[in-house]
Amino acid sequence: MATVGSTFTTENPPKIIWSANRFNPIKRNATLQFTSEGDLVLRDVDGTVAWSTNTSGKSLIGMSINLAGNLMLYDSNNSIIWQSFDHPTNTWLPGQQLSSGQRLIASASTTYWTAGPFSLSLSNRDLYAFIEATPPQLYGHVFHGDHRSRFKSGSFFLTSNKSNSDTVLYESETSNFQYLKLDPDGHFRVYQWVEGVEGVVDDILTGNLGDNLIDCAYPLRCGNYGICSDGQCTCPIGNDGDPNYFRQLDFRQPSLGCVEATQLSCQSPDRHLLLELDNVTYFEFVPILAYTDVQSCKDACLTNCSCRATVYRHNSSMSMGECSMPSKIYSLMNIQKQAVSYNYVTFIKVQKQSASPPTSSKRKSNLISLTVGAFLAAIVVLAFLIFLYVRFKRHVLEDRPNEDGEWENSLVLLPDLPKRFSYEDLKSATQNFDVNKRLGGGGFGSVFGGTLSDGTRVAVKRLDRLGQGRKEFLAEVQTMGNIHHINLVKLLGFCAERLHRLLVYEYMSCGSLDKWIFHRTSEDALEWTIRKKIILNIAKGLAYLHEECKSRIIHLDIKPQNILLDENFNAKLSDFGLAKLMDRDQSQVMTQMRGTLGYLAPE
């Protein structure tokens, strides 16, 4: 890495402006060395090559870094055979050229350099900012032709290389050290160092936006489906003011976005409807239909299962305009009519939550039919319950497997269950529950890694203790199937065939926390920033379970084995089979003791 500045303190640490092995981090005691063949090689502590300049055979004799931050390798003729300027990361330094095919890629966060969703690339002398999607979505056009930005402490400008039309050069007109950076939030900012202190002096992408859009025209400003208005985030509401179609992912952090109350299903397109959002638009408008009316725009979305929303843009008449249908919905933004040259209206597709009420002319006859139907249904249900009771009394001691079969079939009657897998599918995904794929286990069974037929990696929990694990199984399926939070392990589905009961969770590539805090050398210990992040993630997950759910859920078994980590060391809570539901007015809970129930690990 390269750093710049003159005086650093703990409050003003050096800044990383380039990294060789950005997406392949190394452990402590790694080595950087020149090989006899002329390569500069970075080897991890176990000897594996993490990064190389691939300059073998080019007579490498030396290395230096200049004041602009360019790391260079020289041959015997003092010619540059490799330089970091040819391998941009997320930072663009003065004197550095950006060519077609090269990209600036933002980091996932300020502390993790793994690739984030934002990138900036060159095309026909123009710079374009994208967020990853299928296909990528454009959210910013940096400049057209030469671009110059001036501010009171200096200026910079971007010019096309006259000898190469596919290259743009960044130059600075200030004596202070300056650089451009694509930040994790998607902003493309100008940073400048004055006496060792870094400060932002310009934000390029917002330069051409109106004041009311500066805080809103970024894809993740308010998360998925969030509507940004003067920097504030809200969720879409129905045409009749109904706020129940979407809910905030975290009401304390509205910027995290919104989720659908009822997930869209292509199996029931007759229950799709469009929420009309007047004066709301999207950061990207790519016309799909031109010279069309608003109804044709709406019909095109309703008849296309993959369409999640459509944006209609017109001048003075709604009868003629353009239609855009983005492939994925990130943040939307509220606009003022006088601030833009077009009129916008956005239609978001949602799933109807209930059937439409009957018309007044049929209301009386339908009421009679419903009354008679309810009476007959009550008789049928009563007879069915009596039948189940008699059957239960007959088989409870002598025919346990048959009881399990009835219980399995009764799962079909449970509402809001996640996807149901067959036993054979999960057996194939885990290669017949191969012991080499075992990820761990607890008091109720073992967890195996697996891959579904569509390539999705999953963790399959097989419940072995049938008699004791029944309540736990139902608790996990019913509670976790309807709970979604960024710090809770997502339940993807379950299996209930005969005596087989399994749970299918999202796969967490870094495993459980105990593998990182126990039985590890000091070189492999987690950094404090990662530990702090994990602590906050756990707290957020517990706060959601204990305070924010409609029904309070007490986890009762917090330990490192039940805290899982993804590839970015984001922590998520698992094992809701030991959860206990409470009404919000309850202050105490009594439950049967089993296993480690009620346990809070000291670590």
UniProtKB/TrEMBL annotation:
Residues 1-86 form the Bulb-type lectin domain. The chain crosses the membrane at residues 367-390. It catalyses: L-threonyl-[protein] + ATP = O-phospho-L-threonyl-[protein] + ADP + H(+); L-seryl-[protein] + ATP = O-phospho-L-seryl-[protein] + ADP + H(+). SUPFAM superfamilies: alpha-D-mannose-specific plant lectins, Protein kinase-like (PK-like). Coiled coil: none annotated. Residues 433-603 form the Protein kinase domain. The keyword Kinase applies. The keyword Cell membrane does not apply. It is an enzyme of class 2 (transferase). InterPro entries: Bulb-type_lectin_dom, Bulb-type_lectin_dom_sf, G-type_lectin_kinases/EP1-like, Kinase-like_dom_sf, Pan_app, Prot_kinase_dom, Protein_kinase_ATP_BS, Ser/Thr_kinase_AS. It comes from the Eukaryota. Keywords: ATP-binding, EGF-like domain, Glycoprotein, Kinase, Membrane, Nucleotide-binding, Serine/threonine-protein kinase, Signal, Transferase, Transmembrane, Transmembrane helix. Its EC number is 2.7.11.1. Residues 266-349 form the Apple domain. ATP binds at K461. One of its GO terms (molecular function) is protein serine/threonine kinase activity. CDD domains: B_lectin. This is non-specific serine/threonine protein kinase. It comes from Escallonia rubra.
